[in-house]
Amino acid sequence: MAVSSGLSPNMGTERLRAKAKQETRIKEKYKQEKLELKAMLSRMAAEHHHLNYALRKALTKVEELETEKLNCRVTKK
Predict the structure, then answer these.
(1) What does the mean pLDDT of the chain come to?
(2) I need a surface site. Which of 41, 42, 64, 75 has the fewest CB within 10 A?
């Protein structure tokens, strides 16, 4: 087949090796991107947790202050 088309068997083999090498590079690239995205997702989840905790803490403090404010108004009357 390769001989009849004027190509040596080595040229076909080299072309297949080059194609396989390119596929491997592409797979590695996407594997690296996947790992980076997973790391980013993990950081975002941790940040979300910290922000949610801070929000709950602030809301609790606001409730305490509002309750204290109401108690002060009641005692002044």
Answers:
(1) 90
(2) 75
CB-based contact 33:27 (threshold 8 Å): no
pTM value is 0.61
CA–CA separation, 64 and 57 (whole Å): 11
d(Cα 4, Cα 62) in Å, to the nearest integer? 85
CA-CA distances (angstroms) from residue 32 to 23, 26, 36?
14, 10, 6
On the CB side of 16, how many CA atoms lie within 13 Å of its CA?
Answer: 5
Buried/exposed code over 14-33 (b: 16+ C-beta within 10 A; e: otherwise):
eeeeeeeeeeeeeeeeeeee
The whole-number pLDDT of residue 77 equals: 64
